[in-house]
Amino acid sequence: MNKLYFPLLLFLCCFTGYAQITGKVTNQEGTPLAYVNIYLDGTFSGTTSNENGIYNLELSETGNYTVVFQFLGYKTEKKTISVTALPYTLNAKLTEESTTLDEVIVNSGDNPANKIMRNAIEKRDFHRSKIREYTADFYSRGLWRIKNAPEKILGQEVGDLGGGLDSTRSGVVYLSETISEITYKAPNDFKEKIIASKVSGNDNGFSLNSAQEANISFYDNTISLNTKLISPLANYAFNYYNFKLEGVFYNDRGDLVNKIQVTPKRPKDKVFSGFIYIIEDSWQLYGVELKTTGEAIQVPPIEELVFRQNFNFSKKEQLWVPISQTIDFAFNMFGIKGDGRFTAAYTNYDFSPSLEKKTFTNEIVSFAPEANKKDSIFWSSVRPVPLTEEEQNDYIRKDSLQELRESKPYLDSLDNVRNKFGLGNLITGYTYSNSYEKWSLNIGSPIFNTNINTVQGYNSTLEASFRKNTGESFGQYWRIFSEASYGFSEEKFRISGGFQQKFNNISNPVLTVSGGSEVAQINSREPISKTLNSITTSFFERNYMKLYELDFAKVSYQQELFNGFSAFSAISYENRSPLYNHRDKAFLIDWDEREFTSNNPLQPNNENSAPFVEHEIFKISLAAKIEFAQKYLSYPNAKFNIKNEDYPSLTIRYDKGLGANIREYNFDHLRMNLLQEFTVANKGELGYSITGGTFFGNEELSFLDYWHFDGNQTRIGTSSNYLGKFNLLPYYALSTNKNYVEGHVEHNFQGYILGRVPLINRLNYNLVVGAHALSTEGTAPYFEYSIGLDNLGYGKFRFLRLDYVVSQHNGNHKGAFIFGLKFLEIF
After folding, report:
1. How far is the C-alpha of 179 from the C-alpha of 207, rounded, in Å?
2. DSSP at 95
3. Phi-psi category of 659—alpha, beta or left, where left has phi over 0 and alpha has psi -120 to 50?
4. Distance between alpha carbon 390 and the CA centroid of its chain, in Å?
5. What's the pTM value of the predicted model, to 2 decimals?
6. Is residue 106 over pLDDT 60?
7. Within 32-75, where are the H helices?
8. How far apart are alpha carbons 318 and 130 in whole angstroms?
9. 39: exposed, middle or buried (C-beta count within 10 Å: 0-12, 13-18, 19+)?
């Protein structure tokens, strides 16, 4: 028990010893007010009250001060005090702001709110442009709670989620804080240096809170939250919102503040609702109280997001700037309900910093040395928003239990529960873990690894792997993997496996050595999955998957050589043998007018034919991927890359076949790909992919080494988008060993169009249009055009998509519906 009491006493002593000015903020009835801004008059030195209304305001010395209490919906209060000794207690009771319309002359010809909003929208760019650069201190806190969590999901033990759940299956499962120095320069240069980072229950942990993620400006046209939400101050806001003037009041500076109610014109649009506060004459934001839903941002587990922003006035810049922000959220998925909050506070703004050209690089987040080693004394002295009792208890409990939870007896006890085998493991697979030694043994699902094809008949694969984590972070490891399969119709057993090691999480170097014997698809892009082929073969007598036997030995290595430039290399020996059907009878349903085709896609009606002659060959592959202007976050033990959507990614790959025992099968293949996906303002997301390639050297290479396109003959789509895919092109119809180019474009309007259609907008569907083109040397061009609906489903389960696709080739036209089952992408 002493181990628990000592840190508690130490924490409380530190908490009060650095309080400086401390107190509680309530309303007139004594109810605590959370997230009130408290600051010294005329400065950006301040703090924010916590959920219990408690605040701490640090002072550098005693003296006379004017303390300002500012909170939306309440009158700003200033208290002048003489501080002769610290800590100093200063409580405040705020009075609700009474708004009135008496100051407003209502013209029957116009809504007064509309005039205010037009002025604010017109001045939006002007206010944004006034902040050319600044530095500031930034504080963030993230909190997740769970309520009444189930003990199992799909037969798998949930556990206590890192000690966060109590006996009622409720509690704090994530709590972290950061102290940062941030630097900004218009239009979009940003840099954050994290001085201190703290994660409850992990004294080596690094918080994932980020100042850039918290940098939400409603002066922008759109707000990025998984998708693009329309700001009430957007240039086109009147297309999405109705505005109503709720009333006006005067702030402590004598400014007239307009309280504007924001209501969506169409409730299913990607919009907000709530209130914004606009200063009269200058038309600047004074505060924000807006909310949106998970349905709007198309993250179904999220039920609601509530944004609150408070601003303070800079006399020098004549500008209102944010000093605090909170984002409250609630979620519900698979029976797990909870809520949380992200808190941000900005202090010590400097709008005239001395910045150099080298101040900004592609690194936007970095950590100071020992950032995660700060003690409770440090945190008590710098934390601008006091901890609540719940948060204090979580730190104390988890920190005191950390040593226990890392001990062998405790981890073994957890493993004893998690390692129990259940019937659900037949679907999900089974993992046996030794958490203390940081290793695990995984066996794949016997159900999803049992499939059907006409070459092997019924076939079953046993997948097994052993993984050993070698660093503090999960992504540093070595593993041994193997795969053994047996085809019952061909009565043949095959086994393959290998070794893989990932050396670090910064440049992500991965070495893989593998070999053995396996059945592989002739089209190495694997356009049809084993699961989907089993369905079409069993129920529709369509054996689309074409296979060959591969005996191989391979070594590959990949690494990011420098930011934005990754390289891949591989060398392999391959012995390739053609395979033939061993099953010519229907498996489950016999269609009288159909029969299985041969395993040779070039001669589908000739059972005894093969697309190539058995041969041996060596292959060398070299590839490079360039992510232009890639930003990244530098953690002490990891690097997280952030794709810059303003630029495409470029991939260049060269494959060479040499040393073949059939000389004509040696080959050279060079190809390039450009891929980009980006947001088009409020009009959704546009993506395109362009691939071009050429073969040189021998023209009689093996059909295996042709460039095979990602076609589809099943009428089932299995990916989230169709960039790089043809939905009506037979798998091997236009395979080529000559020059080729293919292009794909797809635009997901994400509610921009359907959100404007009455009744339909309540369904929250997305309109998607696409076009696909292919040209190969010596053949007529192939085209596809599609229009469809995405985000189909019910409630929180929206994994479906439906498209109507029309193809055109050699004067022939074909049309069909494609049913997108996006969850099949994982199989």
Report:
1. 10
2. P
3. left
4. 29
5. 0.86
6. no
7. none
8. 9
9. buried
